[in-house]
Amino acid sequence: MKKGLTEEQVLKSRQEHGDNRLSEVKSEGFWEKLLSNFGDPMIKILCIALIINIIFAFLGQTEWYESVGIALAVILATFVSTFSEYRNENAFQKLQDEASKIKCKVYRDNEVTEISIDDIVVGDCILLQSGDKIPADGNLTEGNINVDQSVLNGESKEAKKKAISNEYQEDSNEAMDFLNYYKVFRGTIVCSGNGVMEVTTVGDKSVYGKIASELQANDDRESPLKVKLTNLANGISKFGYLGGILIAVALLFQRIVVHNSFDMTQILAYCSNWMAVVNDIVQAVMLAVIIIVMAVPEGLPLMIAIVSAQNMGKMLKDNVLVRKISGIETAGSLNILFSDKTGTITKGILEVVTFINGGGKQWDSSNKVSPKLKDILTISILENTSAVISQGQIIGGNGTDRAVLGFLPEQIPNYNLTKVASIPFNSDNKYSAVQVTGDFNYTLLKGAPEKIISKCSYYFDEDGNKQPLDPNIINDKINELASRAIRVLGLAISEKPIENDAIPNDDYTIVGILGIRDDVRPESIEAIQEVHNAGIQVVMITGDRKDTAVAIAKEAGLLTSNEDVVLTSDELLALSDEEVKSKIKDLRVVARALPSDKSRLVRLAQELNLVVGMTGDGVNDSPALKKADVGFAMGGGTEVAKEASDIVILDDNFTSIDKAILYGRTIFNSIRKFIIFQLTINVAAVLVSFMSPLLGMENPLSITQILWVNLVMDTLAALAFGGEPALKRYMKEQPKRRDENIVSKYMWSEIITGSLWIFLLSMGMLVLHEADAFFRDDPSNKYLLTGYFAFFIFISVFNAFNARTEQINLFDNIKGNSGFLKILSLIVVVQICMTYFGGNILRCYGLTATEWLFILILAFTIIPVDFIRKLFYKKKER
What we know:
50% of the residues lie in helices and 17% in strands. It has 32 helices and 26 strands. Strands 10, 11, 14, 15, 16, 17, 18, 19 and 20 form a 9-stranded mixed beta sheet that branches. An 8-stranded mixed beta sheet has the order 8-26-25-24-9-21-23-22, with helices on both faces. Strands 1, 2, 3, 4, 5, 6 and 7 form a 7-stranded antiparallel beta sheet that branches. Helix 8 (224-258) packs parallel to helix 24 and helix 28 packs antiparallel against helix 29. The radius of gyration is 35 Å and the shape is elongated.
């Protein structure tokens, strides 16, 4: 075993050569983001109009406090929205970075330990296994591996790497020689084989580090949900622009024509006062811009980041790491999920429960096996594995390797053996082979029993002597184990060597078979049923024999009907694409599956217009994970699989996949709630602002007040709805169609009802003398307009309760979103403070108890109105 560096040597190397961290691309800071937001075209127009307004204030044409109020409102609104955006984006990125840190296995102080790749130093010896991403540049000192270097050189063909020879002299010109057999490079992927590398270059000095800024470019593709929200925002924007222009025209008409009683003489006299005309034009332009700012729902695409950031911590606690936002969004729309078995549906705690030799003799512990047979068994296990034993712990390899190593005797003899050749396991051959020399000269074979038995003519009896093999005896034992959901693994040896990367074709003696138990997780049974209830078909894909797979699938609740289909890889291969498509709706299990089967099933399911999820953990799973609409990688899987995925299930548990689907549906529903709330205010505000000048009234909301309304409905509402809880009832809904409109008929019914009611109440409050009678008399109607401003905010707050649930009970699961009540309470408190302390700047003046009571009763009426709409809609659905 490699000794590795001591702690003192690590410190010295770090001082001389640095560590393995790559320089980070500096993200946009808060002040940069703030300046960027001030560069928004609408804000620019508003600022220009504000400057003109200030000039007129100095000339005595307008009041100074109006300009101050607008300036403060623009600054505050931009600052709050920027802060919210910055905080949520940073929180989301920080959680992702923390949870996705890569670790590697390194030799330190004569032991194998796992450390972050950032902590690697020059001189470290790194254990490399299939599926690992190589963490630094260096030389291969042990083993043979095949490496995918396409990330650096664009070549898709795997490069063979072998252990460096003693005669090799490194040339500095070879630093980027990708054809060099001995050199391995950071960022490349071990496709097969095992080895040990010695690190020669770390961090920014590595080849990867020098071009990292190009390799680590962000994926700028927009998620399907963001595209839908952007399209919706663009559609509403057209309405907003048209409304803004019409409102500006209406205001000018009111100022020039209506104010002058339609008298041409007065109109011409008014127009001769150019300063008054310019001032009115500026006011009209400013109002149009404000209406556009409010009507254009710029917060819709941002809502994804806010909701995701607020749910990220919750998802991580549930062992769901979202790598790509599109993944968690699409998870809510899954129609079919192809799931691995080991560790996902089953516990993943593999244990060898029995060893059976070729004659059918059975042992439940290797310590009970006779000495000679035990030696052969120990060598077969110890020398043909990807896992290692360090400090009494089994590290590396896959679950099967670790389970098999755990079956070794308590006292392992110190054999003098050298590995001289090896053939890594691959899904086509279904075996791995190692040739050893020394105390014993064997080729050791490990793999699928049917592959092993077909090559054997003899077996070792309990005394370790060779006897002629009767395959029927061992096959009967295998079938018995398979019916009990116990996996089997075959071991055999040959005295012939590996030649030209090929094992001997025959002349093997079977050592025996190992029975490996992996119990179904009790919680997986419930989770699978819940996913079924959510309208999602689950298909278990496993490398197990068909009868073993069937036994596990029945226990997990996947096979419940005679119509359920179980196929092996060979049976799948024999079917045409159209035949497979016809069976997909009833498919429940694929046994003895190959990675190519996964990719084919994903493709065919997508051709049926199904939204497809796929789980995987190995190098060969990455094409299927990329091809699927949602790729779920296992936390214990290879780095390659994780990078190809959209979501990483940190505990490898099917229950966590169930939770990921639930969170996907929660995010989708939270965004829909926000849309209802925002569009209701949008439509109502534009209608009121448009109709007021036509009825001979000043706009009931000042520019400053409209900016406060915009802040409430955009940033603050996004934060309020972003914390909605994940409700189990979402898992009883059918999946959303891939092309389903984000605004449903139900949502339109609520938006239209709410906005029309707000508009009608607004007109009644502003036009009818009966409403005016509730407020104190004033020539400028300042108390009525203050009351209207408070009414508009309060009716929006009450309507937020309507928007957050389709239930009759408006407080349904409200404890799950504590931020909702806090933010709405904040809005109410700020509104009350503005009423009493706003003065001329905010055009707000203190109200009496009677005025407040009238406002609250009027605003509250939106609750019973929407209650009636909900009852009508539910009756219509029935």
